[in-house]
Amino acid sequence: MKKNKKRKNTKRKPCVFCLEQMEYIDYKNTEIISKFINAHGKILPSRSTGTCSRHQRLLSTAIKRARIMALIPFTAERIRR
């Protein structure tokens, strides 16, 4: 027997980059990029940040480029020790 699963009727967050009509996410802008990284240094998923799939892909490449250029760390300070 299948149980009835109730879904919450919650609205999805709007994409921040779509609202600002950003076509390109600059990897040098660490203020914007750091909002989409958790305390451990992982990239936050789109279901929690509300970014659309197109901007999530652009965001992940920008974060990876910023990590390689040493603008943001790969991991948090407390994990590195």
What does this structure look like?
The protein is flat. The chain is mainly alpha-helical.
Task: Tag the structure with descriptive keywords.
81 residues, 30s Ribosomal Protein S18, mainly alpha
Question: Strand fraction band?
Answer: under 5%
Based on CA inertia axes, which overall geometry fits? flat
Secondary-structure element order, N to C:
HHHHH
- Number of spatially distinct domains: 1
- Per the CATH scheme, the topology name is 30s Ribosomal Protein S18
Distance between the termini: 51 Å
**Main sheet specs:** none
Mean pLDDT, to the nearest integer, reads 89
Task: Give the secondary structure arrangement, pairings included.
Blueprint: H1 16-19, H2 30-33, H3 46-49, H4 53-68, H5 77-80
TL;DR of this structure?
The chain has 81 residues and is an all-alpha fold. It has helices spanning 16-19, 30-33, 46-49, 53-68, 77-80.
